[in-house]
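Below is a filled-in request sheet from our internal design queue. Each sheet records the structural input a requester submitted and the sequence that came back. We keep these sheets so that new team members can see what a complete request looks like end to end.

REQUESTER: design group, bay 2
PRIORITY: normal
MODE: inverse folding
CHAIN LENGTH: 336
BACKBONE (tokenized):
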């Protein structure tokens, strides 16, 4: 079975451990299977839907996100990494798909709804932002992706894309491929931030980044939210909701040792500094090689941009083929 897989990220900041466990690791695993054809897109057009006034923020993060991709082991000889804005066919497909979706349907998208609230857009929501799920359907269908690995918050985008595929194929001809969402395994989807307040995110300032130095990682772990009632080492402590143990469960490999640490912590007599030191070692085992690869690639940004340029050229060829089929199905390929 051949799979075409498409996924991507908005380039609004560097990627953190939440991205790593929630999606980047899965991509690297998928890439290793030669029957998978993996596309990873830097969604700058989508990022611009709520950053129109500061395009430099979006533009400057393209290299950062690409460095994060290469650092975790995405390999340009196996995976097509590309920039959304360099594929004009996506914009064309978006125009055609908009005619198949009602305003009422777009308004019902719960993720967009809550983003509009969070960003306090109200009636001032940019039209491009409002319809980005339609553009995302174009991202996915341009490559005839059958699998789309994303976070739980992207479920409504997948449903919208599936509806568009169904409507297009029923209205015109069977050209588009039904995309299936692939969601993170339980517990991997929502890594909380180091402060224990909601999920790790740039806006909350509670993240550990793949680009963070060992020194910064150490400081962040040392400031992690544990059990506020665990004041003296001898006090019994709480493991649930204690970020150090939450992270050990996600990143640790020595399950027995972690179980013993939890029991000791619950009994009392185990200090926060000890468990934090252990977590630093656990995280560094994972992060040190990633950081080293990132620094290596960062020495040659032209090379990284060339990887994206080659990826974008390859991606455009595929999208152009789909667009041509789409136009033929619609009967508007006038000169063919
Ligand atoms: N909306 C996705 C996010 O915010 C990014 C994205 C854009 C995407 N286009 C996509 C993800 C297509 C999967 C497929 O994370």
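RETURNED SEQUENCE:
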């Amino acid at each position: 079975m051949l799979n075409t897989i498409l996924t991507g990220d908005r380039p609004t900041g560097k990627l953190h451990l939440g991205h790593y466990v929630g999606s980047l690791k899965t991509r690297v695993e998928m890439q290793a299977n030669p029957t998978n054809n993996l596309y990873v897109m830097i969604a700058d057009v989508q990022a611009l839907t709520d950053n129109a006034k500061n395009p430099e923020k979006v533009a400057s993060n393209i290299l950062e996100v690409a460095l994060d991709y290469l650092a975790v082991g995405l390999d340009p000889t196996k995976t097509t990494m590309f920039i959304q804005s360099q594929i004009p066919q996506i914009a064309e497909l978006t125009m055609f798909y908009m005619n198949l979706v009602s305003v009422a349907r777009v308004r019902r998208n719960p993720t967009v709804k809550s983003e509009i609230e969070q960003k306090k857009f109200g009636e001032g929501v940019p039209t491009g932002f409002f319809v980005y799920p339609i553009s995302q359907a174009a991202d996915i269908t341009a490559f005839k992706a059958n699998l789309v690995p994303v976070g739980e918050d992207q479920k409504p985008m997948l449903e919208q894309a599936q509806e568009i595929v169904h409507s297009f194929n029923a209205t015109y001809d069977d050209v588009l491929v039904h995309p299936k969402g692939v969601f993170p395994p339980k517990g991997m989807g929502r890594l909380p931030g180091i402060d224990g307040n909601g999920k790790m995110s740039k806006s909350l300032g509670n993240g550990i980044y793949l680009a963070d130095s060992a020194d910064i990682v150490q400081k962040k772990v040392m400031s992690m939210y544990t059990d506020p009632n665990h004041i003296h080492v001898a006090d019994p402590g709480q493991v649930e909701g204690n970020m150090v143990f939450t992270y050990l469960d996600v990143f640790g490999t020595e399950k027995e040792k972690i179980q013993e640490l939890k029991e000791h912590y619950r009994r009392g007599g185990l200090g926060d500094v000890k468990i934090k030191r252990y977590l630093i070692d656990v995280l560094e085992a994972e992060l040190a090689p990633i950081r080293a690869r990132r620094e290596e690639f960062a020495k040659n940004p032209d090379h990284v941009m060339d990887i994206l340029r080659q990826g974008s050229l390859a991606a455009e060829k595929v999208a152009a083929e789909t667009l041509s089929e789409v136009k033929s199905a619609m009967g508007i390929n006038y000169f063919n």
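SHEET NOTES:
- The CA atoms of residues 187 and 250 lie 8 Å apart.
- The chain has two domains: 3-190+301-330, 214-296.
FILED BY: M.R.
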